[in-house]
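Is pyridoxal-5'-phosphate placement plausible here? Inputs below.
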Amino acid sequence: MTTIASNLQAVRTAIASAAEDYGRAEHDIELLAVSKNFPANAIRAAYHAGQRRFAENYAQEALDKMTALGDLPLEWHFIGPLQSNKTRAIAEHFVWVHSVDRLKVAERLSAQRPEGLPPLQVCLQVNISDEASKSGVIPAQADELALRIALLPRLTLRGLMAIPAPGADFAAQRSAFAALRSLRDRLNQQGLQLDTLSMGMSHDYRAAIAEGATMVRIGTAIFGERTRHENSSIPESTGDTKPV
Ligand SMILES: *Cc1c(COP(=O)(O)O)cnc(C)c1O
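Reply from A.M.:
I modeled the complex. Tokens:
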């Protein structure tokens, strides 16, 4: 068995045990394998170990891998910072976008989503605890933005995503995720139908599952530590998501 296959099996087992511990149905928690900074052959290994959903942070890096993996039926999720000049490529090639945090990019994604494809599934990224981060709408402005995004014709607003500040202990992790869940409940009381909480990464997914995560985004625990390559064409994180 490859390292990636055994890592994946360990992560699946840990998700199942967290689900059991916190009274969740295992099938309500989807695993996204976050493959940023890892090459196409790592994704191929994960595919052969049964993984179908992959998440990427950088449009060009992702497109290159999609081309290399065009023979596989993979589901691609975009989770990185959204730049206006990249929205067309994202609208054309991804099934989900988790990092929508302003109306302008949401409008562009909707306008650029090809007619022949189903609506783009999106989450609103909320800045729940990490004041230092530039990404994510603040909770006080989330309601108005969510209600506007929900009206865009070529998007389906599915839920909320957050990347809480790292380093918190388990109780603090839980309270950040609980805040995202109550924001989702508040939006649903205003008539939205949000079924998705995209929360939980390698270091905090148990806490996220305890608080209702429906998608966990896991990179390091599957693919290993990300390293910086000086001459790589792969861009480094912009700071929103610290390399572990
Ligand atoms: C990199 C990244 C992840 C995965 O983080 P790990 O700690 O490697 O599991 C999840 N979500 C987002 C938005 C990321 O940028």
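Short version: The beta strands are 30-34, 53-56, 75-78, 96-100, 120-125, 155-161, 196-198, 215-218.
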